[in-house]
Structure formats: C-alpha cells, structure tokens
Amino acid sequence: MAEKKYLAVKEKMEADLLRFKEQLAQIRDMSSEENRREGSPYGKKEEEAAETAEIENRWALEKRVLEQITEYENALKKFEKGNYGICEMCGQQIAPERLEAVPHAKLCISCKAAKAKEAKGFAA
Ligand SMILES: [Zn+2]
Question: I need a surface site. Which of 4, 41, 97, 109 has the fewest CB within 10 A?
C-alpha cells in the first residue's frame, strides 16, 4: 500500500542514487589522476599546499557522497521490507510532505525535533 503511494519518491531516489554514484566515480577518477601525477620533480611548495587542500576537500566531498549513498540505499531497502515512510522511533507514518522534501527521512517531524533537542544537551 505505502509502496505504491511512494512510487514517485522511490523513482526519484533511485535516480538520485545513480547520480551520487556517478559523482563518486568522478571524484575517485580525479583522485587516481592525482596519484599518477605524484612524484613530479617540478612540484613547488605552494602548489603542493594547494593540492593538499584540494585533496582534503575531495575527501570530505567523497565522504559526504558516500553517506548520501548509504542513506538512500537504506531508504530504498525499506521499500523491500515494506516499512518505507515509517518513523524509526515512534513507528508512526512520516508526513508525505516531509518524505517529498527528504525522501530518505528516518524520523517523523516530532521525533526529529525531540532528537535535535536531545543533541543540544537539552536533557541536562
Ligand atoms: Zn516519530
């Protein structure tokens, strides 16, 4: 039932997932190109520093893309299990508007708000 209702969301997620994977492949392509260039005798100090920053940026980006892929894959697995759109904390249906905005959402709005408060050390 829920699966049919969210078919458009699922298709969008699958398309996004493909895009993320392409992005990841591109990032990794760039990294391997860099490795090949390494050991060049013409490297200057400033260039090296700039390159290091670039590589760090790329690592951060790669990590973020990987996280996205994991989130989306987890969300897509829920379609198979038939629990997509169900809040992992309270078991309530997540609002469809929320799922449209954040297709891989794990929590409903109120649980997310409660968790955010908790994270801020509200419970102290
Ligand atoms: Zn909830």
Answer: 41
8 Å CB contact between 104 and 84:
no
94 Cα–ligand 1 center, Å: 7
91 Cα–ligand 1 center, Å: 6
The Å distance, Cα 106 to ligand 1 centre, comes to: 9
110 and 56 in a common domain = no
112 C-alpha vs ligand 1 centroid, how far in Å? 7
DSSP state of 102: S
96 and 110 belong to one structural domain: yes
Domain range enclosing 33: 1-83
pLDDT (tens digit per residue) in 17-67? 999 999 999 999 987 877 776 655 555 788 888 888 988 999 999 999 999
Q: What is the pTM of this model?
A: 0.76
Does 30 lie in the same domain as 6?
yes
**Shared domain check, 53 and 27:** yes
